[in-house]
Write a structure and sequence with these properties.
single chain, elongated, about 260 residues, three-stranded parallel β-sheet
């Protein structure tokens, strides 16, 4: 946080970190204590950060945050978690994050456990935060369609390593890395006459690989002999994209710390 290890922050720096960075978790059921009314998750950050001087001001902040995410305060406050739907509970957590006006929201699969009809509402709230309040969203998901809807840039990970990164439009519409191609190809198309493409088989089956091999080599349809011996670095294949694949070894290498060259 601001160049300092989180484990070494002072008490005052920790308070600043909590104010600047907020999280929205995947499960809208587990984040609540069932013995408390939902008001508790909203009053706690206000009181901890001393954001309101009076009780009336505190409730005004809560009401404004709930209205911003499309909830009616009179139908939400005073209720227990089990009295709200999953979508309502998740929107309360989005409102809680908004109260602090953070610089960054970490949204970890925020819509994966709510009905499809309510996902648009939650995603719309996150989009508004980004556009109207200037809040950066780090959106973690397995769902490329919602990532495309929310993101300006995207980083595709495979077993903890960066496979491809760049403009979300470039990466999703025209993927470079073989793994990203498989991901995009697995998105179902609402056309009964168009069957799903079968997953491509590895180009080098049953060959010995070293411990430092590319992690995707045993599944990759474009694998080369060198992929079984060493892990490829990131190559900047075009101005708004980088891919960790030897298919682009004629392009300049890109260090992780220079990622802003493609994510700018």
């Amino acid at each position: 946080y601001k160049g300092k290890d989180l484990r070494n922050l002072t008490r005052e720096e920790s308070r600043g970190y909590l104010n600047d960075v907020q999280a929205i978790f995947q499960d809208p059921f587990e984040v609540y204590n069932p013995f408390y009314r939902v008001d508790h998750v909203l009053t706690t950050p206000i009181e901890y950060m001393k954001l309101a001087k009076t009780r009336a001001e505190k409730y005004r902040m809560m009401e404004q945050a709930l209205e911003t995410v499309g909830l009616r305060p009179e139908e939400t406050l005073g209720r227990y978690p089990h009295q709200l739907s999953g979508g309502q509970r998740q929107r309360v957590m989005v409102a809680r994050a908004l109260i602090l006006k953070p610089r960054i929201i970490l949204a970890d699969e925020p819509v994966s456990m709510i009905d499809a009809s309510l996902r648009a509402t939650v995603l719309g709230s996150l989009q508004r935060f980004k556009e109207e309040f200037g809040i950066s969203i780090v959106y973690i998901t397995h769902d490329l369609t919602t990532a495309y809807q929310i993101g300006d840039n995207i980083i595709v990970l495979y077993r903890g390593d960066v496979a491809e990164a760049g403009s979300v439009d470039a990466v999703v519409r025209n993927p470079s890395h073989p793994y990203t191609r498989l991901l995009v190809g697995s998105i179902p198309v609402p056309d009964p006459d168009r069957p799903w493409a079968a997953e491509a088989s590895a180009a080098l089956p049953n060959q010995t690989r070293s411990k430092s091999a590319c992690k995707f080599a045993d599944r990759c349809p474009s694998a080369m002999a060198k992929c079984l011996q060493q892990r490829p670095p990131l190559y900047q294949s075009d101005p708004k994209r980088a891919a960790a694949c030897f298919l682009y070894e004629q392009s300049p290498e890109l260090k992780i710390e220079d990622m802003n060259r493609v994510l700018g």
